[in-house]
TrEMBL record:
SUPFAM superfamilies tied to this protein: Ligand-binding domain in the NO signalling and Golgi transport
GO cellular component, one term: Golgi apparatus
Protein name according to UniProt: Trafficking protein particle complex subunit BET3
Protein family per UniProt: Belongs to the TRAPP small subunits family. BET3 subfamily.
Location of the protein in the cell: Endoplasmic reticulum; Golgi apparatus, cis-Golgi network
Keywords assigned by UniProt, alphabetized: Endoplasmic reticulum, ER-Golgi transport, Golgi apparatus, Transport
């Protein structure tokens, strides 16, 4: 028998958010094999790279748009399972993203840091990234052509590809569906030789539901 769960008011930094995230992950989500998940995503990225002739800027764009479309739909599942009420400010939003959102879907809780003075921009740093396990990006992509001819260099993945860019799109799509227009982008990735993997989230504006002409 399922338990009745009341909606939860958010308090930034409250340990309750971690407890909610843990409870949702343990009791209210469908688990999939981590290795299968990682390999499936890797296959998708690889296929896009081949289709776009290793134009990594285009690949980044496609991954972002894929994530954006996923985020537009994923937010409904998030809200229906978490029963979280509307956040009072952007700091509370960041706490919910880290402690419940990422915990619910990826079983991780990125660290929140580097708040801007106006509290409109923050950074998420990942101690682990399930999408990137077992992954190593080459400095260059070499395609072996037939008849042992010279290789054709197609670009520098470590310098150009944001392998997990789908996460930025998901965040953008989810936030937009709750009336928060944000810019979301990777600032570092261990796959590219950086010390850590981090995403920036910047609030641009709070969107308002438009009332049709003639309605009160």
């Amino acid at each position: 028998m399922s338990k009745s769960v009341k909606s939860t008011k958010v308090k930034g930094g409250d340990k309750r958010l971690e407890q909610i995230g843990d409870d949702i992950w343990k009791n209210r989500t469908t688990k999939i094999n981590n290795e299968l998940f990682t390999m499936t995503y890797g296959s998708i990225v690889g296929q896009i790279c081949r289709e776009e002739n290793y134009n990594y800027n285009k690949v980044n764009e496609i991954l972002f748009n894929m994530g954006y479309n996923i985020g537009n739909r994923l937010i409904e599942e998030f809200l229906s399972i978490s029963l979280i009420e509307r956040c009072n400010n952007f700091k509370e939003t960041a706490e919910v993203i880290s402690k419940i959102g990422f915990r619910m879907f990826l079983n991780i809780s990125p660290i929140i840091s580097n708040w801007s003075i106006d509290e409109q921009t923050f950074q998420l740093t990942f101690e682990e990234n399930p999408l990137a396990e077992f992954v190593e990006l080459p400095d260059e992509y070499d395609e072996e052509e037939e008849n042992n001819s010279s290789s054709n260099i197609k670009g520098n993945a470590r310098g150009e590809l944001w392998y997990s860019n789908i996460l930025c799109g998901v965040l953008k799509g989810c936030l937009e569906m709750v009336q928060l227009e944000c810019e979301v982008w990777f600032v570092s990735d261990v796959l590219r030789g950086d010390d850590n993997t981090s995403i920036k989230v910047k609030l641009i504006s709070i969107l308002r539901d438009e009332i049709p002409v003639g309605d009160d």
